[in-house]
Amino acid sequence: MKWFQLDSDTPDDPKIRAVVRHFGPAGFGGLVGIWCHVAKHGRVPGHSIDSSGRPMPIDDLIAASGLDETTFSGLVELCARIGHFRRDTWERERVIQIPAMERRADEYTRKLARRGQRSIDFIGGN
């Protein structure tokens, strides 16, 4: 998944507002960095699983967020607590699983299938 859609009302989402309340604009920026990294490098849409099927290194996720380790840990904990990330997947496997990103990818794939397209060309993809 080389790109994902970010709606103009994203800052109004209650889960995103919770992130901004706790971490300020840096938390929102860190979250977007995580989204981008997972979307670009994830083997499965919405999962921080690399091309070999292993969890992405935590250090890579921290670097993608642009946050320090403590703030990153707090952000992930908050996102797991409020349901933006799947808590069980994080605690068990150290994999960030973003259900909303999974749903969006599934919706996009279904749209393409309805149009009869066999290949997916991602805008801005490599």
Break the fold down into its secondary structure elements and pairings:
Blueprint: H1 14-41, H2 58-65, H3 69-82, H4 87-93, H5 99-115
Helix pairs in contact: 1-2, 1-3
Give a verbal description of the structure:
With 126 residues, the chain is an all-alpha fold. The chain is globular and about 45 Å long. It has five helices and no strands. 59% of the residues lie in helices and 0% in strands. It has one domain (10-115).
- Average pLDDT over all residues: 86
Unreliably modeled segments:
119-126
The main β sheet shows up as: none
For the record, give the distance between the C-alpha atoms at the N and C termini, rounded to a whole number: 11 Å
Radius of gyration: 15 Å
**Backbone structural class:** mainly alpha
Helicity level: 55-70%
Order of helices and strands: HHHHH
Beta content: under 5%
Number of helices: 5
* Number of discrete domains: 1
Got a strand count?
Answer: 0
The dominant shape is globular
Summarize the structure.
By secondary structure, the chain is mainly α.
Sum up the structure in keywords.
single chain; 126 residues; mainly alpha; 5 helices; 59% helix; 0% strand
